[in-house]
């Protein structure tokens, strides 16, 4: 979190804007590009569900945009009031503006511009039973978003992005998370810093590897915290990272496919690691 | 497979084409749209790996396109010879043509136009130990491609697309399969026909459902064939399909996410169903 997250916020305002060339709208449109997201330290979340998730998880809104059709809609007005109360700006816009900002033909009625928020690696101190995922240079925005969603679903603690990864705050990643972007702590770090931090990690570091010698189901994941380290879509884990693992496991494959999709492999691993931790409550008709 | 798959094929030809308005190129460009893929009963596979996979699996090539830079490249020339021998057309084209056809800035050097091929539902007669996946109205091309890839990886037998599904032969789906499109039989059918066929299915039909009463790990998948039925991204299984299942299972979730990504959920299910069938061979250092 950068310093400006802590700036004093005064009550916000409500404006109506229809021009695509309005300077505020132009700034928001620029958030489609990573360069501007980085510079503004902001990103876009589409739809009421995600905006509510963000509010509930304590993220800071800068601007709420909603379509004129949302006027009088109780849920939308409530989000607007919440935005103003927290010092944000509310813009009532044309559907064309929403469509242009989100690059969608049928945009959601509500769009929020939020402060980016990431955690620092040195604050990650996993306790017994905690599971973290580290992704090495993940490239595909959909894969990253889907991994964040799965991490949330299994109750793992967070994701460490190692090296040059796709931006977790891109449209496509945020969409693929289905709101989990607001629930799962994300750390960004370089390989050197990761390897240094890993030395102090008091648990098991498990990597998946095509040459892994251990069946992924044969490992005892219950002792201490677990860090699951996944290589990227093209190359798998590079040697330095593979060597940093306590255990290299392999997910067996029967077919001619030489690998699983990264998000699927991460999902299969996480459900195995959390197998004991995720009991299903008994049901009457079970 | 439609009748024209069986037409007699004469040796093909090799041509050089650089104009985007060449009528053959225009026809191939049109394959970006489902309407033309359906009409031509054809689709595009990008890259040498996929074209080789297609040849090896016995799919019928209509046209092989490669960039001028591929001239003299042994592997590329071999694919061209194979295309001509099987009665297909070889087009040597500019990179601009490839880029336009595939809608990519950096296109693959080789692109193949293949006959579509699907299996008929009445030919699907699973034997003991066989696993099939049925997807109800799957919408996302990436999800469908990833499921096909996973089905291939676990050694399941094929995928039944029920109702109005995304096109398995779209660019995005074919890319996401990483070649498994050529290895995994695909059936397209309507809900009525599926339910009729299901009545004769001599195995266990397992559906995932948020209200499923059985832990997905508590089912014995070893008896007879298994059909895994997955609902779509938005609504899950509709009542009629849910009621057609022998068992409705649930994958436990710890977080605030209300669902897993469809491809991840399918992957987790398939690895559970195939848990006994996919032993990992012992390794010396295991
Ligand atoms: Co900040
Ligand atoms: Co045909």
TrEMBL record, chains A, B:
GO biological process terms held by the UniProt record: methylation
Gene Ontology terms, MF aspect: methyltransferase activity
Pfam family of the protein (one): SpoU_methylase
Keyword Transferase: yes
Superkingdom per UniProt: Bacteria
InterPro entries per UniProt: Alpha/beta_knot_MTases (IPR029028), MRM3-like_sub_bind (IPR053888), Ribosomal_eL30-like_sf (IPR029064), rRNA_Methyltransferase (IPR051259), SpoU_MeTrfase (IPR001537), SpoU_subst-bd (IPR013123), tRNA_m1G_MTases_N (IPR029026)
SMART domains: SpoU_sub_bind
Gene3D superfamilies: 3.30.1330.30, 3.40.1280.10
Keyword field contains Metal-binding: no
SUPFAM superfamilies in the cross-refs: alpha/beta knot, L30e-like
Keywords: Methyltransferase, Transferase
Residues of the RNA 2-O ribose methyltransferase substrate binding domain: 44-120
Family per similarity comment: Belongs to the class IV-like SAM-binding methyltransferase superfamily. RNA methyltransferase TrmH family.
Protein's name in the database: RNA methyltransferase
Lineage, opening ranks: Bacteria, Pseudomonadati, Pseudomonadota, Alphaproteobacteria, Hyphomicrobiales
């Amino acid at each position: 979190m950068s310093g400006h997250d802590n700036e004093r916020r005064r009550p916000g305002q409500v404006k109506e804007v229809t021009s695509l060339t309005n300077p505020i709208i132009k700034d928001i449109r620029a958030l489609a590009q990573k360069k501007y997201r980085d510079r503004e330290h902001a990103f876009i979340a589409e739809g009421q569900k995600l905006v509510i998730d963000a509010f509930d998880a304590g993220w800071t809104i800068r601007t709420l945009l909603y379509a004129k059709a949302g006027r009088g809609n109780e849920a939308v007005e409530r989000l607007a009031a919440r935005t103003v109360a927290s010092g944000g700006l509310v813009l009532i816009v044309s559907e064309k503006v929403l469509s242009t900002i989100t690059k969608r033909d049928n945009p959601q009625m509500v769009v929020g511009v939020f402060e980016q928020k990431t955690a620092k690696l040195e604050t990650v101190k996993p306790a017994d039973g905690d599971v973290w995922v580290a992704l090495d240079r993940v490239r595909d925005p959909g894969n990253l978003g889907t991994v964040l969603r799965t991490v949330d679903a299994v109750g793992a603690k967070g994701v460490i992005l190692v090296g040059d990864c796709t931006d977790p705050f891109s449209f496509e990643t945020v969409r693929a998370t289905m709101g989990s972007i607001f629930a799962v702590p994300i750390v960004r770090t370089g390989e050197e810093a990761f390897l240094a931090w890993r030395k102090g990690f008091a648990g098991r570091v498990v990597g998946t590897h095509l040459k892994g010698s251990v069946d992924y189901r044969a490992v005892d994941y219950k002792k201490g915290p677990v860090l699951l380290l996944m290589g990227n879509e093209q190359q798998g884990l590079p040697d330095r990272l593979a060597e940093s693992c306590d255990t290299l496991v392999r997910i067996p494959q029967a077919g001619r496919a030489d690998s699983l999709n990264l998000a699927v492999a991460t999902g299969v691993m996480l459900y195995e690691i959390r197998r004991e931790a995720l009991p299903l409550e008994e049901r009457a008709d079970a």
